[in-house]
Amino acid sequence: MPEQQQWTITATEQPPEWFIQAVKQYTPASSGLYAAQLLWQRGIKDRQQLTAFINHKAYQPASPFEFGQEMHLAIARLQQAYNTKEKIAIWGDFDADGITATSVLWDGLGQFFAQNIQLVYYIPNRLKESHGLNNQGIDNLAKQGCKLIVTCDTGSTNVEEIIYAKQLGIDVIVTDHHTLPAERPPVAAIINPRYFPKEHQLFNLSGVAVAYKLVEALYQSLPNVAKYPLEDLLDLVAVGLIADLVQLSGDCRYLAQMGIQRLQEDFKQPAAARRRPGVGRLLELCQKSGDRPTDISFGLGPRINAVSRIQGDASFCVELLTSRDVKRCNELAEVTELANARRKSLQKDVQAQVAQKLTQLDLSTTSVIVLEDAQWPAGVLGLVAGQVAQETGRPTILLSTEGAGEHTSLREAAPTTTLSNRGHRGAGGEITSLSSNSELSTQNSALALARGSARSVNSVDLYQLVKDQAHLLHRFGGHPFAAGLSLLVENIPLFTAAINQQLRQSLASTTLTPTVQADLTVTVADLGKELFLELKLLEPCGMGNPVPKLLIQNCWFENSWHRNQQDWQGKKVQYIKAEFDIRDDSSRSAFPGLWWGHYKDELPIGRCDCIAELDYNTFKKRYEIRLIAVRSSVNSALNTQHSPFILDLRNQEHSAPTTQDSTLIIEDCPTNWDDLRIWLRRCLATSRSTSGLENQQQLAIAWSKPNHQPPNQIWLTLVGIAKYLSRTNQLVTRGQLLEKIGISDQTLLVGIKALKYLGFTVKRQDRSLQITWHPSDSAENLADEAVARFLAAVREEQFQQQYFAEVPLSTIVAIASYDSK
């Protein structure tokens, strides 16, 4: 279970009055005090900074020729290609930054080179090729007659591949924002903001922004060629910038502000009149309007990223973002939405399996969490690792050994000579680098490789941690917060021990705990439109300028409820959200809010403190809070006078320890709160009937985490039993069926209904059931629907049991205390 979170409050330095008044000019409906506090905290401390931060029109962006000689070389090479009508290939990447960068070059260079004739693009398959240039792809482009490759969001460290392309008569222009090579590669030009000092306004550009700067320079060099204005590309730039989680300062912030404005303007148009109907349709599918950075970070970005995570090949996403064919874009948007629904489902499955493995770890002695499994799909491991890292406060590495037992050919998996480490990735953190590893020699004939993703937290430099274990790795790449790696399966135990020892030594006596930081203390009366518009001054938020976190103290919740969320086609995706009203003593009015991934019963009973973000729900057209963390108030104790004393004996390897004779023991994992309440009330009733006794009634929750079979397997088992009973004419009790199949009585009833549509007849005989079978195809569609209902019921039951296997004891005590009143 997750450890107790540590809450911290940002040190508040009261800004001077002149600064508050300066901010108030931008918030005429409110005092501007909260916005002034945040801006002052975040280093905006003079009028010029303030004006440039809030009003993009007052900001002076850098010229693309700030890149100096390299930009001049790139433009000269593009002009040569333009004059001689050479064929050019854009080499992109498969994450949101790489896809939008490819799209910017496709639309931008497409003003100068005929698309699909002089200009083509290539995006590697995430599941087969990983990031960066590769020789096979270069061969493919050479066969098509390409004489120039322009990379985006990749390529800086692909020295050998660049040399290989040159041998085939292909020049390379690299546009990238990742680690620089030790020496300048043999390219026509390399445009990478990492060559600037960190304080330069271009230093934090993402891949899409670097690509935009190249197109901007070409527009200025060939001013009378382009048909469409350069600014038409800014919406794509904003999507890539925000999705890639780069620091939104300098030109990054300026480009994001401009791009969000263009995105919103285009979305307001009728679908047939939009410049980017594909982007518009994606916004509709995720119920966003494009006017908020969160519409990208929670809407567009995850959907674009999902395609390569699920399908591997994300090439069609460029067409989705750039085509003006409304019908075609709608088709591609639906494919993208399906991929995202599948991604969410897979992510939830892996998350549940990781949670199970976490119960077997002693987090008090674990500095870096390293887990492996043969069934985990590599595409979602980074997402789950990020969630685990946030919940536990520890860097997390998840590895998939899928297919490792079949061995990977050394010819396919690794170069035939030992190479030094070269380069790393951006926010995606997947593999680009090759580590020096003496074991990877031409003598090896096969490798059993595990591949995975890592995410960091608490300012731990994960990239350096991984890099220091390069001798145990096959490939790796990343940055301080995210990394990707592959290694021999047999090296996993050594790697795990070494990286844990390394971090323990560097931390010394420091303890890793999950931390949530609040920026401001507010009341419920403060929540609403005025505060929202104040906080909106800080947008777009991102790295270095996070969404403001609000601490609300001594509050309580009312009218709470929850439901399972569904995907856009009505199919269940196993995650939930609780909705509620929040109150405190500052106002007679309540304020709405939601808590993703939680049941209403997890909200504390009585007064509490919470940390939340203030948001505007475009779909419901209301202001609301999004709960981040909650805990019982220090000033409010639960009434536990008549509460049962609850022992938590869950998930123990051996039988439950000896308890008092009067202890009630629950061994079956419940599927809802009502099941648990029955036991709580029994315990309370016994306590009250023996109130003269010194000791309270004890209740022991001693169920183990269910080892669930896949729902399809449960269905096949039920059908197999029914066929056997029909063939042998044997009777069966419901209890026997429940024990054999491992489902609840209610779910069994749904299964029996499904059996009837397949031609089974179920009759009662005393306390038993008699099952006979007369196959029929007359109701095939109804049978499919009935089976689907049974599978959904099983998934729901398993989801609920997973929840009750992990729900904090404090939540159960809170429910017991509430029921005892």
Shape: globular
- Give the overall average pLDDT: 83
Structural classification: alpha/beta
Number of strands: 27
Q: Count of helices?
A: 25
Largest sheet: 6 strands, mixed
Low-confidence stretches: 405-445, 635-643, 654-659, 688-695
Helix content: 25-40%
Q: What percentage of amino acids are in beta strands? A: 15-25%
How far apart are the first and last residues' alpha carbons, in Å? 28 Å
Radius of gyration: 29 Å
Strand order of the largest sheet: 7-8-12-14-13-10
Quick synopsis:
This protein is α/β, with parallel strands linked by helices and 821 residues long. The chain has 25 helices and 27 strands. The protein is globular and about 90 Å long.
Structural descriptors:
27 strands, 5-stranded parallel beta sheet, alpha/beta, 821 residues, 6-stranded mixed beta sheet
3D architecture notes:
This protein is α/β, with parallel strands linked by helices. It is built from 25 helices and 27 strands. It has a six-stranded mixed β-sheet with strand order 7-8-12-14-13-10, sandwiched between helices. A five-stranded parallel β-sheet has the order 3-2-4-5-6, with helices on both faces. It has a five-stranded mixed beta barrel with strand order 17-18-19-21-20. Strand 2, helix 5 and strand 3 (119-122) form a beta-alpha-beta unit. Helix 5 (96-109) packs across helix 13. It is globular, with a radius of gyration of 29 Å. Mean pLDDT is 83; it is low at 405-445, 635-643, 654-659 and 688-695.
Can you lay out the helices and strands and say which pair or pack?
Elements: E1 6-9, H1 17-24, H2 33-41, H3 47-54, H4 69-84, E2 87-91, H5 96-109, E3 119-122, H6 135-143, E4 146-151, H7 159-167, E5 171-175, E6 189-191, H8 207-221, H9 234-243, H10 251-267, H11 277-285, H12 293-311, H13 316-322, H14 326-358, E7 369-373, H15 381-392, E8 396-400, E9 408-409, H16 410-413, E10 433-434, E11 446-447, E12 449-455, H17 462-467, E13 475-479, E14 482-488, H18 492-507, E15 515-518, E16 520-522, H19 529-536, E17 550-566, E18 572-583, E19 591-596, E20 608-617, E21 622-632, E22 645-648, E23 664-666, H20 673-689, E24 698-701, H21 711-728, E25 731-732, H22 734-741, H23 745-757, E26 760-765, E27 768-773, H24 780-806, H25 809-820
Parallel strand pairs: 1-15, 2-3, 2-4, 4-5, 5-6, 7-8, 16-17, 19-21, 22-24, 23-24
Antiparallel strand pairs: 8-12, 9-11, 10-13, 12-14, 13-14, 17-18, 17-20, 18-19, 20-21, 25-27, 26-27
